[in-house]
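Format notes (please read before filing issues)

Several people have asked whether sequences and C-alpha cells are stored in separate files. They are not. Every record keeps both together, in the order shown below: the sequence lines, then the C-alpha cell lines. Line labels are part of the format and must not be stripped during preprocessing.
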Amino acid sequence: MQIYQSELFSQGPFELGEGAFWWPERSSWCWADILGHSLYMMDKEGHRTKYHIGEYVSMMVPVQGSQELLLGLQGRVVRFSPEQGLGRTLAVLDGNPGIRCNDGKCDPAGRLWIGTMHLITQKDNGALYCVERNQPPLIKIAQVSISNGIVWYGDKMYFNDTATGMVREYAYEVNSGEIRFVRNAVIIPGELGCPDGMTIDEEGMLWVAHWGGGGVYRWNPVTGELLGKIEVPVLQVSSCVFGGPDMQEMLITTAREHMTAQQIEAYPLSGSVFHARLPFKGLPVNYFKY
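Then the structure lines:
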C-alpha cells in the first residue's frame, strides 16, 4: 500500500467540514462547514472568504454557462453566487424539518444527484435524489441512512451509505439516468473507519474519505483491493476532491463533531482542511445543465 502525505491547508476549526470542491473558473478551492452554516472559498493568492448561508449547507456543484453554484441546504437545492448570495430554490427534496441535504454531485449528463439524512435518527430516513433540469426530484435510492460519496466512471456509478461500511456499484445509463444495483464493490474493515466523501481518478480508482480512519484511502473497485492512503493527522475525515490546474491536487475536509475533549487534545487539527499533491489525475467536475 502506497502512503501519501497531506499538509495543513486552512486551519479551522470547522465543526463539520464537508463539500470539498474545485471551481475551475475561479481557480478556487471551496468547502462547507455544515454546522457552521457557512461555505468558504480560497483563491490562488491564498485569500480565504467566508459566506454565511444561515442554514445547513453541505455540498456545491457548478452550473454550466454561469458563475453560479447549486448548494444543498436543509431540505432544498438553491442557486448561489459569491456576488449575489442565495438565489431561487431549484428543488425541494423533503419538507421534513428533521431532514437535511448531505453529499451530492452531477453526473456526466448534467443531472444533480444529492442525498439526504435525518438530523437525529440516522437510520434509513434519507434518500438519494436525482434532479434533472426543471423536473421534480426523483428518489433513486430509498431508505438511506447517511448518504455520501457518489462518482461515475463509464457505465458505472459508485455510491456509499456511510452506515453500511461499503461502496456499492450500480449499472448507470447516461441517457436515461437509470441505475441498477450490481454488487458491493468495496467493503471497508471496521478498524479503518466508515466511508464518507469520495472522488475518482483517471484510472477509475476510488479515493474515499474514511470517517474515523484518519485518511483518504485509494481503493480498486474492480477487485476491492486497498491500494494507498493519504495520511491526515485527524480521525474524522469527511470529504475529498481532485483539483488544481493539472487536477493532481486534492483538498480534504475534516470534522470535530461529537469529539471528546481528550480526542481534540490528541488530534488538535480536527476540523481543519488539508491538501495533498498526488501522482494521479482526477476526473474533471461535471456541471449542472439546465
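For reference, the curators noted about this record: The domain at 2-277 is CATH 2.120.10.30 (Neuraminidase). The chain has a mean pLDDT of 96.
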